[in-house]
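notes to self, project folder thing:

trying the whole complex as one job this time. last attempt i did each chain seperately and stitching them together was a nightmare. two parts in total, labels are on each line so i dont mix them up again. if this works i'll redo the older ones the same way
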Amino acid sequence: MDFSFTESECDLVSLCREFAQKEIAGRAPKAWEEARCPTDLLREMGALGLLGILIPEQWGGIGMSTVGFVAAMEQIGLADQSVAAAWQAHVTIGSLPLYLFGNDAQRERWLRPLAEGRALGAFGLTEPDAGSDVRGIRTRAVRRDGGWLINGQKTFISNAGTDMSFGVTLLARTEATEGQEPAFASFVVEKDTPGFTMGPKMRGIGWRGLDTRDLFFDDVWVGDDHLIGDPAMGLSQFLRTLEVGRISIAALSLSLTQAVLDMATDYARQRVQFGQPISKFQAVQFKLADIATELEASRWLTYRAAYLRDTGEPFLKEASMAKLKASRVAAWAASEAVQIHGGLGYMLETPVARFYCDSKVLEIGEGTNEIQHLVIARTLGC
Amino acid sequence: MNIAVCVKQIPDPAVPGELDPESHTLHRVGKLILDESDSFGVEMALQLADKAGGGDVTLISMAPNNEVSGLRTALAMGAAKAVLVSDPALAGSDALSTAKVLAQAITRAGDVDLVLTATESTDGYTGTVPNQIAQLLGWPSLTFAKHVEVEDGKLTIRRQTEAGYDVVESSLPAVVSVTAGVVEPRYPSFKGIMAAKNKPVDQCTVADLGLSSDDVGWSGARQEITNVAAAPAREAGEKVEDDGSAHERIVAFLEALKVI
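result (full assembly):
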């Protein structure tokens, strides 16, 4: 099996490495410290073409392969996880529903600005009473005046409240006929739509540079042209884009593990105790060797899931496995890397502490790891 | 307005360089990159062409083995095309020979209103090529520009001085060397990188430029590097124990350096 990169994938990786190291690594930590989404960096990434990475050129993107996206993510996430998190939410769940299920008019209106990097995309799924149990969402869209009247609340929504956010694509329950299963549909709600309001930026353990908020919809009316895709198939549509999101979180996890491995290795080679660098002690060596090995294992699970998507094969199981494995490794590796740093690693002044804070959410977002277990178990016939 | 930018492709400064023991010149084998000091000229040219409402930015370069890696970076930034002079006869060229080649290459590019260069290259540091090009073309030479403006066919630069800057005006065409940091060079976008692969690079030889191989390379060189010595190790500084009068010693030291 050949996972070597094409020439354009190599070019993309070089571009991302240079931008990540020269711009993101220097500027993003301050934004994290100030709990501010660095949209200046996201706009610059947009100018480079990165915000349209998975969208074809026809709609303003660069039409990169999923493998190329994973490789690019490895570079961006190495520099900062919040920027990488905002970026991946934009290119997967923020943009893909519009591309995959929108009509041409909708793609022109909403997808193109996202792909060209002029606006930031968001998707609203989770609610206070519905996370893993997606079918439990209460946000409701009912037929009214030739359009739809939306009422409800979303929570933990990334990218909707920044100065470059266009609004949100959300999933809502639509009216079900008596005795039938409820149906779900996706709608675009642009910012400044009457009745659409937001809470303040939420404070997480990590990802502090990511804009995450509660969204409120009180009698928000949108026209029929804001309905994305099939009015009854919104849930299965969204779940399809979530499969790509899982590869994306797996890739983000790889970048975190690589980052903390690099930091811990550098530190262990410098830190002298008992007359020699602590990297000479097996207790430390074994930790580093374990992290490196687990990282490689997660890396190939992730690239394989990406490769399957690129070749048009089913990748549901592999994407879930990659997300499960890579995020678990990332959270564990971050903890081990802090341990190697000792007291210094506990201090927020050190980058490894920032990455440690950013690691936990990887096991939660884009489907908790418990849900990944369920998805994998189902593919086994359970 | 058509602008030519002289760009040098150099060995990656991040990789330790090597001198040829015979010629004492820099080994220039393998992949070369765009000299960072030239990226400012490229950016400046792109901005000036944009402001002028059109015109092409053409890269002018001389490099061994038809090397184009550095040119592709500048093409990805937005330059339209390049003239690359590559010829085994160019090995050993001194600054004047280089200027002759670049001046001819600029003429070959044709219809150039303005030539931008860096003040000096990051591998050679002679800093004389821009003036020599201007002399050979018979155009005005403006140097150390930290700001460049073209309006109604008139060129105005701010020339960096120790105390501030001089405002220097000139007619066009002219040759201007721009200082590093004068503008923020853009990152090539992904689409720019892809497009650069198909942009025209006019590859030519010394003969194509109407020059003789006697004018360039080792045979044309008017300078010779006779010896290369290692830089002297930095000597230990002076340590001053403060007996209450250390500040006077510091002041005297700074005065001796004419810093204060």
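what i see at first glance: Chain B touches chain A at residues 187-191, 193-194 (CB under 8 Å).
need to look closer tmrw
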